[in-house]
Amino acid sequence: MYPPELKESLARIEITREKRLKEDYPRLTEEDKSALIRQHHPNFVDGGMREILVGPNKGNHAPDELAELLEGNSPVDPDAVDLESVDYNVDVLVLGGGGGGAAAALSAQENGAKVLLATKMRFIDSDTMEFQGGIQAADKPNDSPAIHYLDTIGGGGFANIPDLVEGMVCDAPSIIQWLESLGCMFDKEPDGTMCTEVGEGTSRKRVHTARDRLGSEIMRNLCDEVYNRGITVLEHSPALELIMDDKGQVAGAILINLETKKEVSLVRAKTVVLATGGDGQLHYQGSPSTDHYGATADGLVMAYRIGANLMLLDAVQYHPHGVIYPEQMIGQPVDEKVRRLGAKFANMKGEQFIYHLETQDLVTSAIIRECKNGFAMKTPKGLQGIWLDTPMIELLRGPGTIQRELPAMYMELSTFGIDITKEPILVYPSLYYCNGGIKIDAQGATSIPNLYAAGKVCGGVHGRNMLRDNILLDALVYGRRAGKAAAHRAEKTKLGNLTLEHIRKWQDELKKAGLEKRPISPKLVPDYAKHGKLMRADWHRRYRFELRKEEKQPRIQPVDIQEIEPILNKILDAKAPAVARARMLSGRGLSVDNKLDVMENVIGTKTCLGCGNCIDVCPVIGREPARRKRTEERSSMVLETILLGPEECDRCYSCVLACPQVDISIKQYVVNWRVVEVMPWLDSRISEAKEPDLYLFVEEALSR
Amino acid sequence: MVVERAKILEKKTIYNLEELTPSGEQVRNLYPDLVKCQGCNTCTMSCSQDLNVMEYISYVLYGKIAEVADKSFDCMMCSHCADRCPAGLAPYHIALLCRRLYGRYFVPRSQHLVSRIDEIKEGKFDAELSELKKMEESELRRRYSERDIEP
Fold first, then answer.
1. Share of chain A above pLDDT 70, in %
2. Which of A48, A85, A238, A695 is deepest in the core (most CB within 10 A)?
């Protein structure tokens, strides 16, 4: 729900929508285009970029925030570290737990190396997990790797490194096959042919998808596979600094425990794969970011300090429309598709200011221009934004289009009470991707011996402009290649003595360049003291405007005992009251029907009614009535909690038989196959007792 | 010293996907605790993605893997359901196993992928690619702007 201060502006948008629908806003001329970009695009305005003053890329341009970190001082004091006490000794150390890191760890292990994976956050948290696009691979008959090559290099402004692009397009089909064998649920035709779509800048239908969550589908499978293969994973353990040996090779890393921020551990590794991800959370020029919380350019900083070459640091890419309200979604990109479907932009006055199908950089510049000129809306947090008028899509293409074409965005915004079929979205350009990074060769090796890199931390694959559906492909291809190369390299490597001499050398270099009192880098966590406004609010502080929609299902059908026999036997064998689980198997009314919602939906479902029959008939409680007094509730859940001790249940199945909601055929089964069997045992139990249990129960019942 | 956090492994079964048989029996054997579900619905209530977790767990009990894969697809592995489950289950791992079995065994494999990989191995595209790699930028630009685009 939009806040009251935006209501006035929303009303204006409503009124002017008709006009905008008819209006054809003129496209920009070539001169206007270049003027607009030079004056307003964040990569070109004054004050955004500066020269790097020290290190291998001295003289190159980089965003201020990144340059500051690259010239930073090390958090490690070389004299204080005892290099003799090594905590982990492995062949390949993978830093980073995203798609690239997981792929590298898996392929290194396949090639016979002992692998350790260390990541700053939880092992699954990464940009890969958040990625909602697709993955390109030229595998259809009318397509070829050569066409994919041309699309990629043309999209990248011809600044890509040819070898890297060749490697990526040639490995793409085998990557898809590998993912398929891991169990990724790609969208497929019934005969197994992949469903492919047109993507950004592609000339063939080549983008593979898995509904609209390809990234998480891939990441959770990779993560599961890493655990299944028994690879050691260290979570919440970012690297502070790489360790070298006296032969000038990389020989491990120093990790820190992020929870205590004190304990440090040393990893001695024959080769290191950097897959630490991007740098979006540095928030260049105060722009929001699409990246996840951990993207703070740690890998770039560590590699730069030991002398690795970086490239194209000034090619930063912005997504023209990231969400700016609600706070929980700041920076999250609205898919480009929304403009292709016909949504146009509107400023405060309800007017268009740019043709809606212009390229990304032009739209970005135009939105920033409007905000500078004071035609923007202000959110309660003080951020500025422009309307992206999504209801126009429904007017143009008929109702239902948005739910069909943009399901994820529709669902996410509707949890905050914003119905994008009726209300526009408030957007602002969002930091999308830094095309720059560590320079690698076609096997993922950097310019430093024994250091490999993969994923967003690398540069050069995408040139100056990345095509969205190539990001994931790049990370997986070079993750696998780097892992393989690192494993082979580790076989041949003999490490010398470990040293941290490179830190002293770096500090000398800083002094020589006249840089003193430098900030500490790598940063590890984003700086929200400075960018507090841009921090995404906690997702779980959302409001639930609608009750969960219950799908209407066919109600009770008779249970086929043959089908459920194995599982029913298991349930009945367990030493616990079986009533709730027997009810779950009753009637196939699976969704609402089995809930312990006592108050709702009582009639005609398999819900627990809270009648307490199961408690009343239970012989264990009958023997010890004091137990029942612990609670006044009478649901089957209570029975389960009272009888939680080991081996307490007599397995008489009285509760199942007494429950009015358990399917009759299950009851029959219980009587025929179970109760008859246990009767002699129950008999002996009753004869052992001084008083028959039943009397106790009756007494208790009368006293109520 | 950094402590290894194997908390996730407490509730996860280690398996080799290649050796599994795609059946409900297999899932139940790998996660025998499934029968401990009390049907309290806490998992559904706590799901951050609004999935009906208890429903798909019921489908696991029935051995309907395709349904589980479909219903649990939006899971983000946040582990809220596992953290709150009074019976100590980890519904999200069970669902992941079902999705992997479904993707690996239930859906037919793509044949065009196999043939394209063979073509690449045979070097069918090598000549064309090496020509493109050596090409001058102006010529590349011309080719790029003149390429035919599939409608």
1. 88
2. A238
pLDDT digit string, tens, across residues A257-289: 888 888 889 999 999 999 999 998 888 888 888
Is residue A604 located within the same domain as residue A668? yes
**Using CA atoms, how far apart are residues A311 and A61, in angstroms rounded to an integer?**
10
Q: Residue A301 half-sphere exposure, CB side, CA atoms within 13 Å?
A: 29
Grouping H, G, I as helix, E, B as strand and the rest as coil, residue B145 is helix
> β-strands A344-346, A61-63: how paired?
unpaired
Q: Is residue B1 part of a domain?
A: no
Q: How far is CA A249 from CA A85, A295, A455, A479, in A?
A: 19, 26, 22, 21
Q: What is the pTM of this model?
A: 0.87
Q: For residue range A295-344, list pLDDT tens digits in order.
A: 999 999 999 999 999 999 988 999 988 999 888 888 888 888 888 888 99
DSSP B143: H
- A129, A179, A194, A581: which to substitute to probe chain B, counting the most B Cβ within 10 Å? A581
- In chain A, the number of structural domains is 3
- Write the DSSP string, A575-611: SS--HHHHHHTSTT--SGGG---SSS--TTS------
Shared domain check, B125 and B95: no
**Among A138, A150, A192, beta carbon nearest to B143:** A150
| pLDDT for position B17 | 94
Counting the structural domains of chain B, the total is 2
DSSP secondary structure code for residue A153 in this structure: H
ipTM, interface predicted TM-score of the complex = 0.96
Using DSSP's 3-state secondary structure scheme, residue B75 falls into: coil
Contact B96 A220 (CB under 8 A): yes
CB pairs under 8 A between A and B: 223
A185 falls within a domain: no
User: Which residues make beta-bridge pairs with A274?
Assistant: A95, A453
Q: Which domain holds residue B142?
A: 111-146
Taking CB atoms and an 8 Å limit, are B73 and A211 in contact across chains?
yes
Residue ranges of chain A with per-residue pLDDT less than 70? 529-531, 537-558, 587-607, 629-631, 644-647, 677-704
Distance between CA atoms of residues B62 and A589, nearest Å: 12
Q: Apex CA A13: angle with CA A7 and CA A15, to 5°?
A: 110
What is the span of the domain harbouring residue A576? 561-703
| B77 and B91 both lie in a single domain | yes
- Contact yes or no for A49/A38 (Cβ under 8 A): no
Residue at A659 is within a domain? yes
**What CATH number corresponds to the domain at position A366?**
3.90.700.10
- How is chain B split among helix, strand and coil, in percent rounded to 5? 60, 0, 40
Neighbouring-strand partners of residue A244: A250, A499
Is the domain of B97 the same as that of B124?
no
CA torsion through residues B5, B11, B14, B15, sign? negative
